[in-house]
Amino acid sequence: MDSDSLVVWLFAMTLIVGAAIGVWQWTRVKQAKRTNEHSVATTPQAGPDPRA
């Protein structure tokens, strides 16, 4: 196997896996917003509540 084709294959697989994870996270955020649950992407801040 030629090293150039290996680089192209690895790039393509990384792109596909990254896109799949991105779509999965996006659907999780949409579901969390729909059911009024918190997710990492919908939580406005991390740490203690400054109003407490």
Structural features:
single chain; 52 residues; mainly alpha; elongated
SSE succession: H
The best one-word shape is elongated
Instruction: Name the poorly predicted regions.
Output: none
The total of helices stands at: 1
Q: Bin the helical content.
A: 55-70%
Distance between the termini: 61 Å
Overall pLDDT, averaged?
Answer: 80
Keywords: Membrane, Transmembrane, Transmembrane helix
Any overview of this molecule?
By secondary structure, the protein is mainly α. 62% of the residues lie in helices and 0% in strands. The chain has one helix at residues 3-34. The longest helix is centred in the middle third of the chain and has 32 residues, at 3-34. The chain is elongated. The protein starts with a helix and ends in an 18-residue tail after the last helix.
Write the topology of this structure.
Elements: H1 3-34
Briefly summarize what is shown.
This protein has 52 residues and is mainly α. Helix content is 62%, strand content 0%.
